[in-house]
Specification:
Helices cover 30% and strands 22% of the residues. The protein has 393 residues and is α/β, with parallel strands linked by helices. Helix 7 packs parallel to helix 8. Bound molecules: pyridoxal-5'-phosphate.
């Protein structure tokens, strides 16, 4: 990541491709999450470059919000970037840490999620050598079939905890729901919750009673009080996006209001070229589009390299002067062509909105995801980190 693009820029006038991050929307989302969390600890998930928003800029804003006690990251690199951005509260690391870099967990004062006995042993011996206590969070397998530890494996973990005094007890016990976003029927989530309760009891019986239990991602936090336990770890909702239509529907069916979250991100570019094409002209690679009448075309400097999915070819549109300009032909690696025949007065340098509002028109991440055949999470997470980030009020 280039240093220049990592730091959020203050003005967009010289930029051709930038993401605006609304501080007030982020503020509102965090307030809503803190209200849902009640007296539980709030951990905000900033993995995957803060869901594509820009880890540095988002972390610097989150530093001002005192409701947040933890940030959740996937990797050691992300944890280090969060520290660089000035975050001095707690950090939980969800993903694997290479065993050769385990010491960095102590250096950056991190709390790793544990799903592997070897890793726990390594932390145990390091904590002994450094004489530094370490808080760890066991990931329990309750039906997601991903990182979790099974009932049978728990005694082995209990033995490791007892062997290393600086790991006296597991600080946390966690699990992740497999089927809480994709459905309005939540029986599998309830089944997982039952298993979680049983495993927590088993941990207590083994003498490693967890003091911080956590299971709730955004959907669980929004919908079910009995998933909140001691700490909640929402991600996508912090950025103003619902985990899914089903979550939104379930929430509304429970009587919830629709003013909880506001999208933080607006993605913009500029018209860099205009041209007039006669009728019957092809546009772009593969000659997939052919004009039926004289066409005024704008070229914009954004393509699939930036995370503007190629499946949006001939399907999506962008906003210019508050109007929709349809994408024509295939999206290229760095460029996209849009039809501005029906938008009067378009000039080189005019702002183009790829995601967000322009006047009365809006293009949501969810619409884009639908057209691209994926989910809002993926559209966000794949936004190129090198795109400039700008904090706006
Ligand atoms: C990503 C993630 C979250 C946050 O999920 P959202 O659906 O974005 O709220 C929480 N917990 C774990 C383990 C995760 O991997």
């Amino acid at each position: 990541m280039q240093a220049a693009s990592k730091r959020a820029t203050q003005q967009s006038s010289h930029l051709l491709n930038w993401i605006e991050l609304s501080r007030s929307s982020l503020r509102q989302n965090i307030r809503s999450l803190a209200r849902l969390a009640g007296d539980r600890i709030l951990s905000v998930c900033v993995k995957s470059n803060a869901y594509g928003h820009g880890l540095d800029a988002i972390t610097r804003m989150l530093c001002d919000f005192t409701e947040i006690e933890y940030l959740t990251v996937h990797s050691l690199d992300e944890a280090a970037a969060v520290r660089d951005a000035g975050w001095d509260r707690r950090i939980m690391v969800l993903g694997p840490v290479p065993s050769g870099q385990a010491e960095a967990v102590f250096v950056h004062d991190l709390e790793p999620v544990i799903f592997d006995a070897k890793a726990l042993t390594k932390y145990g011996s390091l904590s002994n050598r450094l004489k530094r206590p370490l808080r760890t969070h066991l990931k329990l397998e309750t039906g997601t079939g991903r990182q979790g530890i099974t009932d049978k494996e728990l005694p082995q973990f209990a033995r490791i905890y007892k062997k290393y005094p600086y790991l006296k007890k597991p600080y946390g016990a966690s699990m992740h729901f497999a089927n809480i976003e994709d459905t309005t029927r939540h029986s599998f989530a309830e089944h997982q919750l039952d298993r979680f309760h049983r495993m927590v009891t088993l941990m207590s019986n083994l003498g490693i009673k967890p003091v911080l239990r956590h299971t709730a991602s955004s959907a669980a936090l929004i919908l079910f009080d009995n998933t909140r336990f001691d700490l909640v770890r929402p991600g996508i909702a912090a950025y103003g996006h619902w985990p899914s239509k089903e979550t939104y529907l379930s929430y509304r069916l429970l009587g919830g209001e629709n003013d909880l979250f506001k999208p933080v991100m607006t993605w913009k570019t500029r018209v860099t070229q205009l041209k007039q094409l006669p009728a019957d002209s092809f546009i772009g690679y593969g000659c997939t589009y052919r004009t039926t009448s004289p066409t005024r075309l704008a070229v914009i400097p954004v393509g699939y390299f930036d995370g503007y999915d190629r499946k949006l070819s001939n399907v999506s549109y962008v906003l210019i002067k508050g109007k929709r300009a349809p994408v024509r032909g295939r999206i290229c690696m760095n460029l996209t062509m849009v039809d501005v025949s029906d938008i009067s007065g378009v000039k080189v340098g005019d702002e183009v909105t790829l995601i967000g509002h322009d006047g009365k028109e809006a293009l949501t991440v969810e619409q884009i995801a639908g057209w691209a055949g994926t989910i809002n999470y993926e559209i966000l997470a794949r936004l190129q980190p090198s795109i400039a980030r700008m904090i706006v009020p």
